[in-house]
Specification:
Order of helices and strands: EEEEEEEEHEEH
Number of strands: 10
Largest sheet: 8 strands, antiparallel
Number of helices: 2
Shape: elongated
Radius of gyration: 14 Å
Structural class: alpha+beta
Strand content: over 45%
Length: about 100
């Protein structure tokens, strides 16, 4: 299955996996994980092919979760675990990260 540029295979019923993204059927939808690295000291994560598996939310459909994963992979968004949201990079984010150094 390829959606939004993300490729995943069905491993078992309710379980899909790709190289950098995986999804498991959950009672509220699909629980997604993606390889990510942490940004600074915040609970913020960005896609990294060498990162650890990080939860990136529970989505009602596979398509929605893959859309979020595609935005993270593209580098336009990062995952904010404190509020379970894919946020767009902006000057405010860069400012916070610069202040941590």
């Amino acid at each position: 299955m390829i959606r939004h540029g993300e490729s995943m295979e069905r491993i078992l019923p309710g379980l899909y996996a790709g190289n950098d993204v995986r999804a498991e059927r959950h009672r509220r939808g699909w629980a997604f994980q993606m390889k990510c690295g942490q940004l600074g000291r915040q609970l913020w994560f960005e896609y990294s092919p060498h990162g650890l598996w990080t939860a990136i939310g529970i989505w009602r459909t596979l398509d929605t979760g893959l859309w979020v994963a595609a935005r993270l992979r593209a580098g336009t968004h990062f995952w904010d675990a404190s509020c379970q949201t894919a946020r767009l990079y902006g000057d405010d984010v860069y400012s916070i990260l610069r202040d941590e150094v």
